[in-house]
Specification:
62% of the residues lie in helices and 0% in strands. It is mainly alpha-helical and 133 residues long. Helix 1 packs across helix 2 and helix 1 runs antiparallel to helix 3. It is elongated. The relative contact order is 0.21.
Length: 133
Amino acid sequence: MIHLSLASPVYPRGMLHLLAPPATQESPLPYAEAVSRLASVRHALRLVEPFGGGPASDPSDDEALAAGWDGAGDARQQQFDRRSERMIGSAAAGIEALLVESQEGREPNAAASQALVDEIRRELSEIAGIILA
């Protein structure tokens, strides 16, 4: 089930915006901004999960990320930044495609929706693992 709550009523086809920085930065993001990227994707994940609308089924590693962020070092923080930025772009494109299908009166393919959910979960886990490793 696709929820249209992220689609703005101002735009006829809707637009989806996940938190992403304007450009890749040389220095790592502050912890709070970096974690808010993952939180925005976890929230969007609720929109495409079959039987969506309930709480996200994905565990949040925010506390563990907070504990490990400063000790991760600049190289791992920058890797986290790059990977999370790419993941947000990919997730937004996939979710927007599903929203467009729904807005045009077609039920999005359940297998495609599940594949997107699985990919987002895998990416979230891998990106958190950069800091938690």
